[in-house]
Here is the input.
Amino acid sequence: MVLSGRLQMLADMVTPGSVLADVGCDHGFLSIYLVQAGVCPRAVAMDVRKGPLAGAGKHIEEYGLGDYIETRLSDGLAECSVGEFGAVVCAGMGGRLMERILTEGREKLQGVRELILQPQSELGEFRAFLRRAGYVLVQEDAVFEEGKYYFAMKACPDNSSAAGSLTAENGESARRREELADRFGGLLLEAAHPVLLGYLRQREAHLRQVESSLGAADSRRAEEALAGIRRELTDIELAYEICGSGRGEGSSLA
Here is the structure.
């Protein structure tokens, strides 16, 4: 089994020996790869749609892994049991939907050591949700594939007693760093990740173009749009600074 870049990125984040829940499994290739490679002893490939789940089951049988990978029709984690899995992968869907799945399945996540996540939208809001839900991001990665940017993250339960604490002296700066980490990925910024830098450059070029087209507009709506664009451009400039001005000279969020 050879995975696409975005799926390989997810597979590389799974801790060896983990029993896997693949939520929204689609074709089932990720579960097949992880079991075939000996990373996971067994897996459950789940999807809310009968068609893709049937396709995943066919692929699993073609690889002779029916004894190790179960398919399960499930809306999110609804058909899971507490303590059944050590790792949960959730990818290929929007951040809001992923947030709903994790919120509704909160009880089912007891005992799960890691979440491997790849939201397709609302990344900033989703990272903030994970923090509020008591998770810490321990790994982030990104790939550019077939003209699209994919961002992945590994979240573990945060057992730190100091989680989320802000002192009076550095409270405002800490909040600003938190906002930037949510928007762009704190670990990606610290590493000056080349794919993140490519995304920042592309996003900046788009915003500059829109800014130029709105510059002569004379309406309240245009002014509000311009203000939002300039706020985002300011965030991008700060992100460049953390990354070493986009030259790969890593810096720290601390």
